[in-house]
């Protein structure tokens, strides 16, 4: 049966996910909500859907599942409402704009006792990341994960926002690959003369190992790489794209300037997997717990930045609902 989706947020991510839902074939967007009426109308028209305000959409009988791609600070309230309505929900990252917002979704889902929200940490579905994780399985315990993340921002975001909006991805990658939680984080930031930043986050992991994040907000291109060292070797993702062009006796790689190109496949695969998982009645993918933990690490990074010293990452006990860490499932015991 076709999955009828209510789409909240008609900006760039909403349009992108909407296009992937349409391409999926087993899902249809039936309602669109956005604070900007013209944006909602344009996207609704493109899908042959109706425009509806978010609370009505969440409650509507003909909306089987909800996709949240609205501004960050609205994610948590809509996710809590989707949980209250008992509807499967795909929520773009971050889970909330603050740790308190993220906590409210965690509390709601734990109280309901069933996972309904899948978080948009799409790198878990990116073929390069998946291949890297598979290779690592042969190489013994991971000792170090190095994440490199370059953006081509034109607007200045403050460092706290870069942690919360951008580096949450890298935090999740480190947790997902190692199956370990952060114990401490330290942060080094150099602000350039143009106001953009070079940031280095060093995380010590429980049970041993290091996770590092090298981030710059205004680089020469959009790039995301991972290099993971294990006891018997090292694996690294290759540069995007898949082809190199030689002309004029030189080789050119069009690396791109945004995440839509780099993660095009990952976005499509995560939406296809979300639709399939609902149809199969089998919940999977990045969890509310993953989103919450990423924000606890972000809070520790903010503390480390302010104090200039490493800050501990203090987590509550993982609720039973989230049974195991995603990395524990992905990586067999070695
Ligand atoms: C953006 O919001 C994303 O989610 C991208 O994946 C990330 O690379 C970028 O830094 C964020 O601003």
Number of strands: 15
Helix content: 40-55%
Gross morphology is globular
Secondary-structure element order, N to C? EHEHEHEHEHEHEHEEEEEEEHHHEH
How far apart lie the N and C ends? 41 Å
Pairing-aware structural class of the strands and helices?
alpha/beta
Helices, by number, come to 11
Radius of gyration: 20 Å
Overview of this protein structure:
With 334 residues, this protein is α/β, with parallel strands linked by helices. It is 40% helix and 26% strand. It has helices at 12-24, 37-47, 54-59, 72-85, 99-112, 127-136, 159-178, 259-262, 264-280, 288-307, 326-330; strands at residues 3-8, 27-33, 50-51, 65-68, 89-91, 117-119, 142-152, 182-191, 197-205, 210-216, 218-230, 233-236, 245-247, 250-252, 311-312. The strands form 3 sheets. A 7-stranded mixed sheet has the order 12-11-7-10-9-8-15. Strand 11 and strand 12 (233-236) form a beta hairpin. Helix 1 (12-24) packs across helix 9 (264-280), helix 4 (72-85) packs parallel to helix 5 and helix 5 runs antiparallel to helix 10 (288-307). The longest helix is centred in the middle third of the chain and has 20 residues, at 159-178. The chain is globular, with a radius of gyration of 20 Å. The protein starts with a strand and ends with a helix. The relative contact order is 0.15. The protein binds (2R,3S,4s,5R,6S)-2,3,4,5,6-pentahydroxycyclohexanone.
Structural key phrases:
334 residues, alpha/beta, six-stranded parallel sheet, 15 strands, globular, disordered C terminus, binds (2R,3S,4s,5R,6S)-2,3,4,5,6-pentahydroxycyclohexanone
